[in-house]
Amino acid sequence: MADANLRRIGLIALAIGVAAVAATLSMRTFNAPAAVDHGRARQQVLYYTLSRIDDPIIVLGDSIVEASTLPRTACGHAIVNAGLNGASTASDLGNWLAAALANKRVTAVIVALGTNDALTNSPNEKAFEDRYGALLRDLSKLTTRLAVLAIPTVDARERLTVEMQNEIMPSIDKFNAILPDIAKRANATFLPLPEMPSPHTIDGIHLNADGYRIWDKAVMDGAALVCG
């Protein structure tokens, strides 16, 4: 039990460390003050972007989404990256996105979340299920077309050790096992991820080029499906 707790603490520290590095790089690039709230900054950028676009397809999620370089359009609709570093199902992303949309509706929302839930929380499937379901209910006020992407697996790379991988993968597997039912209850389309190559991340968590090739295809296949 003590070893498991230590590994969980290590995973939390890893998630926090990755977020801190990203924030530092962002502030260094834009010469922003140290107190910049990344969530509010991203929300404001999304507001500016969405104010010029009608009927977009939004990809909503965590740093894996934020770091993605998806195509600009699908089936005649602009694709908007609404990724937020560090986001989880507990991040109130539905209201966060709604504020950025300022009462505009969207063609579809594709949700890609769960990695941070598995990294920083105990594998409580009921809490995950309840939070994800609540998010999808919030998003259903913005669009009639929702899709839910499976959670990518993690690698034993960089600071994510084999022991950490063995700690986190049961949580990811449990969450992925219930995602199809969560999606079905919300009238959303579930998007599975094919098996990833090894390695498929740059640091155990964030995808490398090979990982993104598979992830991007799953997102674009989902966009095609929700477009009908």
Please give a structural write-up.
It contains eight helices and six strands, in the order H-H-E-H-E-E-H-E-H-H-E-H-E-H. It is α/β, with parallel strands linked by helices and 228 residues long. It has a single domain, classed as SGNH hydrolase (Rossmann fold, 3-Layer(aba) Sandwich). Strands 2-3-1-4-5-6 form a six-stranded mixed β-sheet. It is globular. The N and C termini lie far apart (49 Å).
List the helices and strands and how they pair.
Layout: H1 2-30, H2 38-50, E1 57-61, H3 63-66, E2 73-74, E3 77-83, H4 93-101, E4 108-112, H5 115-120, H6 125-139, E5 146-149, H7 162-185, E6 189-191, H8 209-227
Parallel strand pairs: 1-3, 1-4, 4-5, 5-6
Antiparallel strand pairs: 2-3
Helix pairs in contact: 1-7, 2-4, 4-6, 6-7
In short:
By secondary structure, the chain is α/β, with parallel strands linked by helices. Helix content is 52%, strand content 11%.
Keywords:
alpha/beta; Rossmann fold; 6 strands; 6-stranded mixed β-sheet; 228 residues
